[in-house]
Amino acid sequence: MATTSGTRASVTAAAASIPASAYFALALLASANLLNYLDRFVVSILAEAIKADLRLDDAQLGFLLGTAFAIFYSIVGVAMGGISDRLSRKKVMAFGLALWSGMTALGGAATNFMTLAAARIGVGVGEAAANPCSHSLLADIFPPKNRALALGVYLAGTFLGGALAMAVGGYFLEHWSTSMCTAVPIAGACDLAAWKAALFAVGIPGFPLALLLLTIREPARNGGKTQQSTGVIVREFSAALPPFTLMTVAREGGPLALRRNLVILAAISLAAVLLVAWTGDYAQWIAFGVGAYVVVTWGQIQSLRDRPLFALTFGDRTFLYAMAATALIACVGGAINVWAAPFAMRTHAMNPSELGLRLGVIHTVGAVIGVIAGGWLADKWKQRDRRAPLGMAAISICGTLPSVLVMLLVVEVDLFLIAYASVSVFGAMWSGATAALVQDLVLPRMRGSAAACYSLIAIVVASGTGPYWAGKVSAVTGSLTAGMLSLLILAPIALVFLWLAAKRLPQETPEARLALATAAGEPI
Protein backbone atom coordinates (compact mmCIF):
# COMPACT_ATOMS: atom_id res chain seq x y z
CA MET A 1 0.00 0.00 0.00
CA ALA A 2 1.56 3.24 -1.08
CA THR A 3 1.83 6.08 1.38
CA THR A 4 0.43 8.59 -1.09
CA SER A 5 -2.43 6.27 -1.96
CA GLY A 6 -3.36 5.75 1.70
CA THR A 7 -3.18 9.48 2.40
CA ARG A 8 -5.29 10.35 -0.66
CA ALA A 9 -7.92 7.75 0.34
CA SER A 10 -8.11 9.17 3.86
CA VAL A 11 -8.51 12.72 2.61
CA THR A 12 -11.20 11.66 0.15
CA ALA A 13 -13.11 9.77 2.85
CA ALA A 14 -12.95 12.70 5.24
CA ALA A 15 -14.13 15.16 2.62
CA ALA A 16 -17.03 13.08 1.32
CA SER A 17 -20.53 13.80 2.54
CA ILE A 18 -22.17 11.06 4.55
CA PRO A 19 -25.03 9.45 2.57
CA ALA A 20 -28.39 8.43 4.01
CA SER A 21 -27.46 4.78 3.51
CA ALA A 22 -24.71 5.23 6.11
CA TYR A 23 -27.22 6.27 8.75
CA PHE A 24 -29.51 3.39 7.76
CA ALA A 25 -26.61 0.96 8.23
CA LEU A 26 -25.76 2.57 11.57
CA ALA A 27 -29.37 2.20 12.73
CA LEU A 28 -29.49 -1.49 11.79
CA LEU A 29 -26.11 -2.26 13.34
CA ALA A 30 -26.98 -0.37 16.53
CA SER A 31 -30.25 -2.34 16.69
CA ALA A 32 -28.34 -5.59 16.28
CA ASN A 33 -26.01 -4.49 19.05
CA LEU A 34 -29.04 -3.77 21.23
CA LEU A 35 -30.21 -7.37 20.74
CA ASN A 36 -26.65 -8.54 21.32
CA TYR A 37 -26.67 -7.11 24.83
CA LEU A 38 -30.34 -7.83 25.49
CA ASP A 39 -29.68 -11.52 24.90
CA ARG A 40 -26.38 -11.39 26.77
CA PHE A 41 -27.52 -9.59 29.92
CA VAL A 42 -31.11 -10.75 30.36
CA VAL A 43 -29.75 -13.59 32.51
CA SER A 44 -28.62 -10.96 35.03
CA ILE A 45 -32.13 -9.96 36.10
CA LEU A 46 -33.20 -13.62 35.80
CA ALA A 47 -30.24 -14.80 37.90
CA GLU A 48 -32.03 -15.23 41.22
CA ALA A 49 -34.83 -17.25 39.60
CA ILE A 50 -32.34 -19.38 37.68
CA LYS A 51 -30.29 -19.93 40.85
CA ALA A 52 -33.33 -21.13 42.79
CA ASP A 53 -34.78 -23.26 39.96
CA LEU A 54 -31.52 -24.98 39.00
CA ARG A 55 -30.07 -24.99 42.55
CA LEU A 56 -26.85 -23.14 41.80
CA ASP A 57 -24.34 -21.30 43.98
CA ASP A 58 -22.93 -17.83 43.22
CA ALA A 59 -19.74 -19.21 41.65
CA GLN A 60 -21.79 -21.26 39.15
CA LEU A 61 -24.02 -18.28 38.58
CA GLY A 62 -20.96 -16.13 37.89
CA PHE A 63 -19.82 -18.69 35.33
CA LEU A 64 -23.18 -18.50 33.55
CA LEU A 65 -23.27 -14.71 33.72
CA GLY A 66 -19.83 -14.29 32.18
CA THR A 67 -17.40 -17.11 31.52
CA ALA A 68 -19.66 -19.49 29.58
CA PHE A 69 -20.37 -16.71 27.12
CA ALA A 70 -16.94 -15.11 27.05
CA ILE A 71 -14.58 -17.99 26.47
CA PHE A 72 -16.23 -19.48 23.44
CA TYR A 73 -16.88 -15.97 22.18
CA SER A 74 -13.11 -15.63 22.21
CA ILE A 75 -12.53 -18.79 20.17
CA VAL A 76 -14.95 -17.79 17.44
CA GLY A 77 -14.00 -14.13 17.74
CA VAL A 78 -10.43 -14.98 16.79
CA ALA A 79 -11.67 -16.44 13.53
CA MET A 80 -14.22 -13.70 12.95
CA GLY A 81 -11.54 -11.02 12.82
CA GLY A 82 -9.96 -12.49 9.70
CA ILE A 83 -13.27 -13.62 8.23
CA SER A 84 -14.75 -10.12 8.48
CA ASP A 85 -11.70 -8.72 6.67
CA ARG A 86 -12.19 -11.12 3.74
CA LEU A 87 -15.86 -12.06 3.38
CA SER A 88 -19.09 -10.08 3.16
CA ARG A 89 -19.45 -8.48 6.57
CA LYS A 90 -23.22 -8.04 6.38
CA LYS A 91 -23.71 -11.75 5.60
CA VAL A 92 -21.43 -12.88 8.41
CA MET A 93 -23.17 -10.48 10.78
CA ALA A 94 -26.64 -11.69 9.76
CA PHE A 95 -25.65 -15.33 10.29
CA GLY A 96 -24.19 -14.54 13.71
CA LEU A 97 -27.35 -12.67 14.76
CA ALA A 98 -29.60 -15.55 13.74
CA LEU A 99 -27.36 -18.01 15.62
CA TRP A 100 -27.17 -16.12 18.90
CA SER A 101 -30.90 -15.40 18.83
CA GLY A 102 -31.65 -19.09 18.37
CA MET A 103 -29.30 -20.11 21.18
CA THR A 104 -30.85 -17.53 23.51
CA ALA A 105 -34.26 -19.05 22.88
CA LEU A 106 -32.88 -22.57 23.39
CA GLY A 107 -31.69 -21.48 26.81
CA GLY A 108 -35.36 -21.49 27.75
CA ALA A 109 -35.34 -25.26 27.38
CA ALA A 110 -32.45 -25.77 29.83
CA THR A 111 -33.07 -28.10 32.76
CA ASN A 112 -29.74 -27.96 34.62
CA PHE A 113 -26.45 -26.09 34.91
CA MET A 114 -24.78 -27.90 32.01
CA THR A 115 -27.58 -27.44 29.47
CA LEU A 116 -27.94 -23.75 30.28
CA ALA A 117 -24.15 -23.36 30.09
CA ALA A 118 -24.21 -24.99 26.64
CA ALA A 119 -26.88 -22.54 25.46
CA ARG A 120 -24.92 -19.55 26.79
CA ILE A 121 -21.82 -20.86 25.02
CA GLY A 122 -23.87 -20.88 21.81
CA VAL A 123 -24.86 -17.25 22.43
CA GLY A 124 -21.18 -16.37 22.71
CA VAL A 125 -20.38 -18.21 19.47
CA GLY A 126 -23.00 -16.22 17.54
CA GLU A 127 -22.23 -12.84 19.12
CA ALA A 128 -18.55 -13.15 18.22
CA ALA A 129 -19.46 -11.89 14.74
CA ALA A 130 -20.96 -8.63 15.98
CA ASN A 131 -18.05 -6.35 16.84
CA PRO A 132 -15.54 -7.29 14.08
CA CYS A 133 -18.16 -6.95 11.34
CA SER A 134 -19.88 -3.85 12.74
CA HIS A 135 -16.73 -1.93 13.69
CA SER A 136 -15.17 -2.67 10.32
CA LEU A 137 -18.29 -1.63 8.39
CA LEU A 138 -18.73 1.60 10.33
CA ALA A 139 -15.04 2.49 10.01
CA ASP A 140 -15.39 2.19 6.23
CA ILE A 141 -18.74 4.01 6.09
CA PHE A 142 -17.87 7.01 8.29
CA PRO A 143 -14.79 9.25 7.88
CA PRO A 144 -12.22 9.50 10.72
CA LYS A 145 -13.54 12.85 11.99
CA ASN A 146 -16.96 11.26 12.68
CA ARG A 147 -15.80 7.77 13.59
CA ALA A 148 -15.80 7.99 17.41
CA LEU A 149 -19.31 9.49 17.41
CA ALA A 150 -20.59 6.83 14.98
CA LEU A 151 -19.10 4.07 17.08
CA GLY A 152 -20.51 5.76 20.17
CA VAL A 153 -24.01 5.63 18.64
CA TYR A 154 -23.45 1.97 17.72
CA LEU A 155 -22.26 1.23 21.25
CA ALA A 156 -25.31 2.99 22.66
CA GLY A 157 -27.08 -0.21 21.61
CA THR A 158 -24.93 -1.95 24.21
CA PHE A 159 -26.50 0.01 27.02
CA LEU A 160 -29.99 0.15 25.55
CA GLY A 161 -29.88 -3.62 25.24
CA GLY A 162 -28.61 -4.06 28.78
CA ALA A 163 -31.32 -1.77 30.10
CA LEU A 164 -34.04 -3.46 28.07
CA ALA A 165 -32.82 -6.79 29.44
CA MET A 166 -33.48 -5.53 32.96
CA ALA A 167 -36.95 -4.20 32.13
CA VAL A 168 -38.12 -7.16 30.04
CA GLY A 169 -36.65 -9.79 32.34
CA GLY A 170 -38.11 -8.15 35.43
CA TYR A 171 -41.53 -7.82 33.83
CA PHE A 172 -41.57 -11.51 32.91
CA LEU A 173 -40.58 -12.53 36.43
CA GLU A 174 -43.36 -10.46 37.94
CA HIS A 175 -46.21 -11.04 35.49
CA TRP A 176 -45.66 -14.22 33.47
CA SER A 177 -47.42 -16.70 35.73
CA THR A 178 -50.21 -14.30 36.72
CA SER A 179 -51.33 -12.72 33.44
CA MET A 180 -48.93 -12.94 30.51
CA CYS A 181 -48.97 -16.70 30.01
CA THR A 182 -52.77 -16.79 29.60
CA ALA A 183 -52.44 -14.66 26.46
CA VAL A 184 -50.11 -17.20 24.81
CA PRO A 185 -52.07 -19.67 22.66
CA ILE A 186 -49.86 -22.61 23.57
CA ALA A 187 -50.98 -25.45 25.83
CA GLY A 188 -49.05 -25.56 29.08
CA ALA A 189 -47.60 -22.05 28.70
CA CYS A 190 -48.41 -21.21 32.31
CA ASP A 191 -46.42 -24.23 33.48
CA LEU A 192 -43.27 -22.71 31.98
CA ALA A 193 -40.98 -20.92 34.43
CA ALA A 194 -40.92 -17.15 33.96
CA TRP A 195 -37.16 -17.04 33.30
CA LYS A 196 -37.52 -19.63 30.56
CA ALA A 197 -40.36 -17.71 28.92
CA ALA A 198 -38.22 -14.56 29.01
CA LEU A 199 -35.36 -16.29 27.18
CA PHE A 200 -37.73 -17.54 24.48
CA ALA A 201 -39.23 -14.06 24.05
CA VAL A 202 -35.99 -12.08 23.74
CA GLY A 203 -34.49 -14.54 21.27
CA ILE A 204 -37.24 -14.22 18.65
CA PRO A 205 -36.68 -10.61 17.35
CA GLY A 206 -33.21 -11.41 16.06
CA PHE A 207 -34.47 -13.40 13.09
CA PRO A 208 -36.26 -10.60 11.17
CA LEU A 209 -33.45 -8.17 11.95
CA ALA A 210 -30.94 -10.64 10.51
CA LEU A 211 -32.80 -10.45 7.19
CA LEU A 212 -32.77 -6.64 7.28
CA LEU A 213 -29.00 -6.63 7.78
CA LEU A 214 -28.64 -8.21 4.36
CA THR A 215 -30.01 -4.99 2.81
CA ILE A 216 -27.02 -2.91 3.99
CA ARG A 217 -24.97 -1.46 1.13
CA GLU A 218 -21.53 -2.86 1.85
CA PRO A 219 -18.76 -0.35 1.03
CA ALA A 220 -15.87 -1.28 -1.21
CA ARG A 221 -12.84 -2.49 0.69
CA ASN A 222 -10.14 0.09 1.33
CA GLY A 223 -6.93 -1.89 1.17
CA GLY A 224 -8.68 -5.25 1.31
CA LYS A 225 -10.62 -7.56 -0.99
CA THR A 226 -13.93 -9.28 -0.34
CA GLN A 227 -13.64 -12.99 -1.10
CA GLN A 228 -16.28 -15.62 -1.64
CA SER A 229 -14.65 -18.81 -0.43
CA THR A 230 -15.21 -21.35 2.29
CA GLY A 231 -11.43 -21.65 2.29
CA VAL A 232 -11.30 -18.37 4.22
CA ILE A 233 -13.53 -19.83 6.95
CA VAL A 234 -11.48 -23.03 7.18
CA ARG A 235 -8.24 -21.04 7.26
CA GLU A 236 -9.35 -18.70 10.02
CA PHE A 237 -10.96 -21.36 12.21
CA SER A 238 -7.84 -23.51 11.94
CA ALA A 239 -6.02 -20.63 13.62
CA ALA A 240 -8.59 -20.48 16.43
CA LEU A 241 -9.94 -23.94 17.20
CA PRO A 242 -7.80 -26.40 19.20
CA PRO A 243 -6.28 -28.84 18.28
CA PHE A 244 -6.17 -27.50 14.69
CA THR A 245 -4.20 -24.56 16.06
CA LEU A 246 -1.22 -26.88 16.53
CA MET A 247 -1.27 -27.87 12.87
CA THR A 248 -1.60 -24.23 11.82
CA VAL A 249 1.34 -23.16 13.99
CA ALA A 250 3.48 -26.00 12.61
CA ARG A 251 2.54 -25.18 9.02
CA GLU A 252 3.16 -21.45 9.40
CA GLY A 253 6.26 -21.50 11.59
CA GLY A 254 7.77 -24.99 11.52
CA PRO A 255 9.04 -27.12 14.45
CA LEU A 256 10.40 -24.20 16.48
CA ALA A 257 7.07 -22.37 16.47
CA LEU A 258 5.28 -25.60 17.37
CA ARG A 259 7.58 -26.20 20.34
CA ARG A 260 6.94 -22.66 21.58
CA ASN A 261 3.21 -23.18 21.26
CA LEU A 262 3.39 -26.43 23.19
CA VAL A 263 5.24 -24.63 25.98
CA ILE A 264 2.45 -22.01 26.03
CA LEU A 265 -0.15 -24.80 26.14
CA ALA A 266 1.66 -26.57 28.98
CA ALA A 267 1.99 -23.38 31.03
CA ILE A 268 -1.68 -22.44 30.63
CA SER A 269 -2.78 -26.02 31.36
CA LEU A 270 -0.71 -26.10 34.54
CA ALA A 271 -2.16 -22.78 35.66
CA ALA A 272 -5.69 -24.06 34.99
CA VAL A 273 -5.05 -27.28 36.96
CA LEU A 274 -3.71 -25.32 39.93
CA LEU A 275 -6.69 -22.95 39.88
CA VAL A 276 -9.12 -25.87 39.68
CA ALA A 277 -7.37 -27.51 42.64
CA TRP A 278 -7.53 -24.24 44.58
CA THR A 279 -11.15 -23.29 43.83
CA GLY A 280 -12.82 -26.56 42.84
CA ASP A 281 -14.47 -24.82 39.87
CA TYR A 282 -13.67 -27.08 36.91
CA ALA A 283 -15.89 -25.42 34.31
CA GLN A 284 -14.55 -21.93 35.04
CA TRP A 285 -10.85 -22.62 34.76
CA ILE A 286 -10.96 -25.19 31.97
CA ALA A 287 -13.00 -22.74 29.90
CA PHE A 288 -10.78 -19.80 30.82
CA GLY A 289 -7.66 -21.84 30.00
CA VAL A 290 -9.03 -22.66 26.56
CA GLY A 291 -9.85 -19.00 25.92
CA ALA A 292 -6.43 -17.79 27.08
CA TYR A 293 -4.65 -20.38 24.92
CA VAL A 294 -6.70 -19.43 21.87
CA VAL A 295 -6.00 -15.71 22.21
CA VAL A 296 -2.25 -16.15 22.80
CA THR A 297 -1.99 -18.67 19.95
CA TRP A 298 -3.81 -16.33 17.60
CA GLY A 299 -1.22 -13.69 18.37
CA GLN A 300 1.55 -16.18 17.64
CA ILE A 301 -0.06 -17.22 14.35
CA GLN A 302 -0.41 -13.59 13.27
CA SER A 303 3.29 -13.07 13.97
CA LEU A 304 3.96 -15.85 11.46
CA ARG A 305 1.18 -15.30 8.93
CA ASP A 306 0.63 -11.51 8.90
CA ARG A 307 3.59 -9.70 10.44
CA PRO A 308 2.27 -6.18 9.71
CA LEU A 309 -0.98 -6.96 11.55
CA PHE A 310 0.97 -8.44 14.46
CA ALA A 311 3.31 -5.43 14.50
CA LEU A 312 0.36 -3.06 14.95
CA THR A 313 -1.60 -5.18 17.50
CA PHE A 314 -0.19 -8.02 19.61
CA GLY A 315 3.38 -6.97 18.89
CA ASP A 316 2.88 -3.29 19.70
CA ARG A 317 3.20 -1.96 23.25
CA THR A 318 0.97 1.05 22.63
CA PHE A 319 -1.86 -1.19 21.48
CA LEU A 320 -1.37 -3.71 24.29
CA TYR A 321 -1.15 -1.10 27.05
CA ALA A 322 -4.35 0.56 25.82
CA MET A 323 -6.18 -2.76 25.48
CA ALA A 324 -5.04 -3.99 28.91
CA ALA A 325 -6.32 -0.79 30.50
CA THR A 326 -9.71 -0.90 28.81
CA ALA A 327 -10.08 -4.62 29.56
CA LEU A 328 -9.63 -3.92 33.27
CA ILE A 329 -12.04 -0.99 33.12
CA ALA A 330 -14.56 -3.24 31.37
CA CYS A 331 -13.98 -5.91 34.02
CA VAL A 332 -14.95 -3.54 36.81
CA GLY A 333 -17.92 -1.95 35.05
CA GLY A 334 -19.21 -5.11 33.40
CA ALA A 335 -19.20 -7.22 36.56
CA ILE A 336 -20.82 -4.44 38.60
CA ASN A 337 -23.62 -4.16 36.02
CA VAL A 338 -24.12 -7.93 35.83
CA TRP A 339 -24.47 -8.28 39.60
CA ALA A 340 -26.42 -5.03 40.21
CA ALA A 341 -29.85 -6.65 39.92
CA PRO A 342 -29.13 -9.65 42.20
CA PHE A 343 -27.49 -7.25 44.66
CA ALA A 344 -30.55 -4.98 44.72
CA MET A 345 -32.91 -7.93 45.19
CA ARG A 346 -30.92 -9.25 48.13
CA THR A 347 -30.00 -5.95 49.80
CA HIS A 348 -33.00 -3.71 49.13
CA ALA A 349 -35.72 -6.35 48.74
CA MET A 350 -37.01 -4.82 45.50
CA ASN A 351 -39.49 -6.89 43.48
CA PRO A 352 -38.26 -7.96 40.02
CA SER A 353 -40.68 -5.91 37.93
CA GLU A 354 -40.05 -2.64 39.77
CA LEU A 355 -36.33 -3.31 39.92
CA GLY A 356 -36.04 -4.21 36.26
CA LEU A 357 -37.94 -1.14 35.12
CA ARG A 358 -36.07 1.29 37.38
CA LEU A 359 -32.63 -0.12 36.68
CA GLY A 360 -33.46 -0.37 32.99
CA VAL A 361 -34.52 3.24 32.63
CA ILE A 362 -31.64 4.53 34.73
CA HIS A 363 -29.07 2.46 32.85
CA THR A 364 -30.51 3.42 29.47
CA VAL A 365 -30.47 7.16 30.09
CA GLY A 366 -27.17 7.22 31.94
CA ALA A 367 -25.20 4.91 29.67
CA VAL A 368 -26.46 6.41 26.41
CA ILE A 369 -25.54 9.86 27.69
CA GLY A 370 -22.14 8.54 28.74
CA VAL A 371 -21.22 6.69 25.57
CA ILE A 372 -22.38 9.39 23.14
CA ALA A 373 -20.94 12.25 25.19
CA GLY A 374 -17.70 10.31 25.57
CA GLY A 375 -17.42 9.75 21.82
CA TRP A 376 -18.26 13.37 21.00
CA LEU A 377 -15.83 14.78 23.57
CA ALA A 378 -13.09 12.42 22.42
CA ASP A 379 -13.52 13.55 18.80
CA LYS A 380 -13.23 17.21 19.84
CA TRP A 381 -10.41 16.63 22.30
CA LYS A 382 -8.46 14.49 19.83
CA GLN A 383 -8.14 17.44 17.44
CA ARG A 384 -5.78 19.00 20.01
CA ASP A 385 -4.36 15.94 21.73
CA ARG A 386 -3.91 12.46 20.30
CA ARG A 387 -4.16 11.03 23.83
CA ALA A 388 -7.83 12.00 24.15
CA PRO A 389 -9.28 8.44 24.03
CA LEU A 390 -7.02 7.41 26.91
CA GLY A 391 -7.96 10.54 28.84
CA MET A 392 -11.62 9.69 28.37
CA ALA A 393 -10.95 6.18 29.72
CA ALA A 394 -9.21 7.68 32.77
CA ILE A 395 -12.17 9.98 33.42
CA SER A 396 -14.45 6.96 33.10
CA ILE A 397 -12.72 4.79 35.70
CA CYS A 398 -12.07 7.68 38.10
CA GLY A 399 -15.74 8.63 38.02
CA THR A 400 -16.89 5.02 38.35
CA LEU A 401 -14.95 4.23 41.54
CA PRO A 402 -16.70 6.56 44.03
CA SER A 403 -20.04 5.84 42.37
CA VAL A 404 -19.62 2.10 42.96
CA LEU A 405 -18.61 2.65 46.58
CA VAL A 406 -21.74 4.69 47.25
CA MET A 407 -23.93 2.23 45.37
CA LEU A 408 -22.75 -0.74 47.44
CA LEU A 409 -22.56 0.86 50.87
CA VAL A 410 -25.69 3.02 51.20
CA VAL A 411 -28.81 1.65 52.85
CA GLU A 412 -31.38 3.94 51.20
CA VAL A 413 -32.85 2.67 47.93
CA ASP A 414 -32.97 6.14 46.37
CA LEU A 415 -29.25 6.73 47.03
CA PHE A 416 -28.50 3.31 45.56
CA LEU A 417 -30.36 4.24 42.37
CA ILE A 418 -28.67 7.66 42.13
CA ALA A 419 -25.26 6.00 42.51
CA TYR A 420 -26.21 3.39 39.89
CA ALA A 421 -27.07 6.22 37.50
CA SER A 422 -23.62 7.70 38.05
CA VAL A 423 -22.03 4.29 37.45
CA SER A 424 -23.99 4.03 34.20
CA VAL A 425 -22.80 7.42 32.91
CA PHE A 426 -19.14 7.15 33.85
CA GLY A 427 -18.91 3.44 33.05
CA ALA A 428 -19.91 4.07 29.43
CA MET A 429 -17.74 7.06 28.58
CA TRP A 430 -14.64 5.14 27.51
CA SER A 431 -16.09 2.69 24.99
CA GLY A 432 -16.67 4.76 21.84
CA ALA A 433 -13.36 6.61 22.24
CA THR A 434 -11.26 3.47 22.64
CA ALA A 435 -13.09 1.64 19.84
CA ALA A 436 -12.12 4.52 17.54
CA LEU A 437 -8.54 4.46 18.89
CA VAL A 438 -8.23 0.81 17.87
CA GLN A 439 -9.20 1.72 14.31
CA ASP A 440 -6.77 4.65 14.29
CA LEU A 441 -3.87 2.39 15.24
CA VAL A 442 -4.18 -0.04 12.30
CA LEU A 443 -4.35 0.04 8.51
CA PRO A 444 -7.75 -0.07 6.76
CA ARG A 445 -7.33 -3.70 5.67
CA MET A 446 -6.90 -4.73 9.32
CA ARG A 447 -10.02 -3.14 10.79
CA GLY A 448 -12.01 -6.31 11.41
CA SER A 449 -9.04 -8.15 12.91
CA ALA A 450 -8.16 -5.19 15.13
CA ALA A 451 -11.75 -4.92 16.37
CA ALA A 452 -11.71 -8.67 17.09
CA CYS A 453 -8.44 -8.33 19.00
CA TYR A 454 -9.85 -5.42 21.01
CA SER A 455 -13.04 -7.32 21.79
CA LEU A 456 -11.21 -10.53 22.65
CA ILE A 457 -8.89 -8.98 25.19
CA ALA A 458 -11.74 -7.07 26.79
CA ILE A 459 -14.21 -9.97 26.75
CA VAL A 460 -11.81 -12.65 28.04
CA VAL A 461 -10.63 -10.43 30.90
CA ALA A 462 -13.93 -8.72 31.66
CA SER A 463 -16.61 -11.36 31.12
CA GLY A 464 -14.32 -14.34 31.60
CA THR A 465 -13.21 -13.31 35.09
CA GLY A 466 -15.25 -10.36 36.42
CA PRO A 467 -18.67 -11.95 37.11
CA TYR A 468 -17.05 -15.19 38.31
CA TRP A 469 -14.61 -13.31 40.56
CA ALA A 470 -17.39 -11.38 42.29
CA GLY A 471 -19.50 -14.52 42.55
CA LYS A 472 -16.67 -16.59 43.98
CA VAL A 473 -15.78 -14.02 46.62
CA SER A 474 -19.48 -13.82 47.45
CA ALA A 475 -19.73 -17.62 47.77
CA VAL A 476 -16.66 -17.78 50.03
CA THR A 477 -17.47 -14.78 52.24
CA GLY A 478 -21.23 -14.97 52.17
CA SER A 479 -21.35 -11.34 51.07
CA LEU A 480 -22.12 -10.18 47.53
CA THR A 481 -21.10 -6.68 48.62
CA ALA A 482 -17.60 -7.98 49.41
CA GLY A 483 -17.47 -9.75 46.05
CA MET A 484 -18.36 -6.61 44.11
CA LEU A 485 -16.08 -4.35 46.17
CA SER A 486 -13.14 -6.69 45.53
CA LEU A 487 -13.26 -5.76 41.84
CA LEU A 488 -12.17 -2.20 42.61
CA ILE A 489 -8.56 -3.23 43.18
CA LEU A 490 -8.28 -3.44 39.37
CA ALA A 491 -8.83 0.32 38.91
CA PRO A 492 -5.34 1.55 39.87
CA ILE A 493 -3.79 -1.13 37.66
CA ALA A 494 -5.90 0.15 34.76
CA LEU A 495 -4.69 3.71 35.39
CA VAL A 496 -1.06 2.57 35.24
CA PHE A 497 -1.65 0.97 31.83
CA LEU A 498 -3.40 4.13 30.61
CA TRP A 499 -0.40 6.19 31.69
CA LEU A 500 2.02 3.84 29.88
CA ALA A 501 -0.06 4.03 26.68
CA ALA A 502 -0.43 7.82 26.93
CA LYS A 503 3.36 8.24 27.05
CA ARG A 504 3.64 6.56 23.66
CA LEU A 505 0.51 7.73 21.86
CA PRO A 506 1.64 11.23 20.72
CA GLN A 507 4.18 9.61 18.39
CA GLU A 508 1.65 7.19 16.91
CA THR A 509 0.71 9.23 13.83
CA PRO A 510 -0.84 7.54 10.77
CA GLU A 511 2.52 7.92 9.02
CA ALA A 512 4.33 6.28 11.93
CA ARG A 513 1.87 3.37 12.01
CA LEU A 514 2.22 2.88 8.26
CA ALA A 515 6.02 2.95 8.61
CA LEU A 516 5.83 0.34 11.38
CA ALA A 517 3.68 -1.91 9.20
CA THR A 518 5.97 -1.38 6.22
CA ALA A 519 9.01 -2.34 8.28
CA ALA A 520 7.18 -5.55 9.19
CA GLY A 521 6.57 -6.37 5.52
CA GLU A 522 3.50 -4.41 4.40
CA PRO A 523 3.78 -3.88 0.60
CA ILE A 524 4.77 -0.39 -0.49
Commentary on this structure:
The protein is mostly helical and 524 residues long. Helices cover 81% and strands 0% of the residues. It is built from 23 helices and no strands. Helix 8 crosses helix 19. The longest helix is centred in the first third of the chain and has 37 residues.
Helix content: over 70%
Low-pLDDT stretches are: 1-15
**Which secondary-structure class do the elements indicate?**
mainly alpha
Large-scale geometry: globular
Indicate the proportion of strand residues.
under 5%
Whole-angstrom Rg:
22 Å
SSE pattern, N- to C-terminal: HHHHHHHHHHHHHHHHHHHHHHH
Mean pLDDT: 86
What's the total helix number?
Answer: 23
For the largest beta-sheet, the strand count, sense and barrel status come to: none
Distance between the termini: 5 Å
Q: Give a count of the beta strands, DSSP E runs of length 2 or more.
A: 0
Write the layout of secondary structure elements.
Layout: H1 3-15, H2 20-45, H3 47-54, H4 58-84, H5 89-106, H6 113-127, H7 130-141, H8 144-180, H9 194-203, H10 206-213, H11 230-238, H12 244-279, H13 282-305, H14 307-312, H15 317-348, H16 352-382, H17 388-409, H18 413-428, H19 431-440, H20 447-477, H21 480-485, H22 490-504, H23 510-519
Helix pairs in contact: 2-5, 2-7, 2-8, 2-9, 2-10, 4-6, 4-11, 4-13, 4-20, 5-6, 5-7, 5-9, 5-10, 7-8, 7-20, 8-9, 8-16, 8-19, 12-13, 13-20, 15-17, 15-18, 15-20, 15-22, 16-17, 16-18, 17-18, 17-19, 17-22
